[in-house]
Design brief:
The protein has about 375 residues and is of the alpha/beta class. The chain has two domains: about 190 residues, Rossmann fold (3-Layer(aba) Sandwich); about 180 residues, 3-Layer(aba) Sandwich (Rossmann fold), CATH 3.40.50. It has 14 helices and 13 strands. It binds ligand GMT. The site of ligand GMT has 20 residues, from helix 1.
């Protein structure tokens, strides 16, 4: 067993969720896992054995316009590595974690400790933010100076090689689902009547309501679906565009059919009600939200951006359309929702396909990366 430090955002976003689920799975398998971040990760079950959480505090000072989080993070990484004999620092989302890890590595080298750093790229750290001229030089440097690099899809690997001059091999290791959180008997407890009548379909969207998610498109798609098929829409999550889409719902006069449920850290409990999941994003390196829906037996209508076609299989687990092609997404949604036989077949396909992303398939791939770094072989 190994001693692993995990650095991530503690928020609801996909990279923080993946990092947290990975850390808990590693700890349950007997590894000693240390989370290092500025808050307790939202999905962290801190009662998990072998799991530790180290909060990064950032001392404020009037001279600073921006608080130097990376400095505090590098110092905390060094402190935790020295105190607990950590062998690997696995950082999720290159910005600023890979950069802070590089500095920690240099400090530890002076102390005679050769820590290994694995960086997992998650998407917006490459496609939206990392490749921006303000960050690109340092992001490229910190990826090339990681000891191992992984990406959550082939598409993201391709984007990384296209946008940066990368000298390292990038391993593709997909995101995964802990199916224990999707117990079958849960569906027995799943009381749809709380949300919709028997003759209504339940459609769901989950995101951080940022521009990349195109939440306006979600409302436009639902507005047209409910004109043809009786249905309700659950909008799960929160973010900068929530107010705008709430106004759009009122403009269409469909506020009794749309529930804005805000942030929740057990989306799977809500997903048991769903008949269809909408994810029309501008780009998605992987689309963890779509996979979580499929694990809850929910077919997906998504755009064909980024790595979504590596998760959502056109005509099998749902359908994919060009970004912004509302008509096509509506027509495909109506095909799936038209009758119970078709809908149930898509639900079954979605669930069966999601199984390939189970924890038992994915966890060994990360363990192999760790063992290669520390012992030289998988
Ligand atoms: O935009 C989000 O969904 C949050 C974002 C993040 O960086 O936390 O998610 C990214 O990482 C997820 C986990 O690997 C992927 O499933 C998402 O597709 C990816 N988001 C984008 O690429 C826009």
């Amino acid at each position: 067993m190994m001693k692993i430090g995990i650095v991530c955002y503690p928020t609801y976003g996909g990279s923080g969720v993946v990092a947290t689920e990975l850390g808990m799975a590693l700890a349950n398998k007997g590894h000693e896992v240390h989370f290092i971040t500025y808050n307790q990760p939202v999905r962290l079950d801190f009662m998990t054995k072998n799991l530790h959480f180290h909060e990064v505090f950032v001392e404020e000072y009037p001279l600073f316009l921006y608080q130097p989080y990376e400095l505090a993070l590098s110092s905390k990484m060094v402190e935790v590595v020295v105190q607990y004999g950590i062998q690997i620092l696995h950082v999720h989302y290159a910005i600023p974690h890979a950069y802070a890890a590089f500095m920690a590595k240099q400090i530890l080298k002076e102390k005679g400790i050769n820590i290994k750093v694995a960086t997992t790229l998650h998407g917006t750290d490459i496609t939206l933010v990392g490749s921006h001229p303000d960050y690109k030089t340092a992001v490229e440097f910190s990826i090339n100076n990681s000891d191992a690099v992984t990406s959550v899809s082939q598409s993201l690997k391709n984007d990384t090689l296209r946008l940066f001059d990368i000298k390292k091999e990038i391993d593709v290791i997909y995101n995964f689902i802990d199916f224990e959180k999707y117990p079958d008997e849960q569906f027995g407890k799943c009381n749809r009547a709380n949300l919709a009548n028997d003759d209504e379909r339940i459609i769901v969207h989950t995101s951080n309501f940022r521009p990349v998610k195109r939440v306006d498109d979600v409302i436009e798609i639902f507005h047209k679906i409910q004109q043809k098929i009786k249905s309700k829409l659950l909008m799960i999550g929160d973010g900068p565009l929530r107010e705008g889409v709430e106004k759009l719902v009122k403009t269409y006069g469909i506020q009794e059919k749309v529930y804005f449920l805000g942030k929740t850290d057990d989306v799977n409990r809500l997903l048991c009600h769903a008949d269809l999941f909408l994810l029309p994003s501008e780009t998605e390196s992987f689309g963890l939200a779509a996979l979580e829906a499929m694990a809850a037996k929910t077919p997906v209508i998504s755009s064909n951006a980024g790595g979504l076609s590596e998760v959502n299989i056109h005509g099998i687990t749902g359908y994919l359309s060009d970004v912004g092609n509302i008509e096509d997404m509506v027509n495909n949604a109506l095909k799936i929702l038209a009758d119970d036989a078709t809908l149930n077949q898509f639900k079954l396909n979605a669930f069966n396909h999601s199984k390939q992303f189970c924890q038992d398939n994915i966890l060994p791939q990360y363990e192999c990366v760790y063992r290669k770094l520390v012992h030289g072989c998988c």
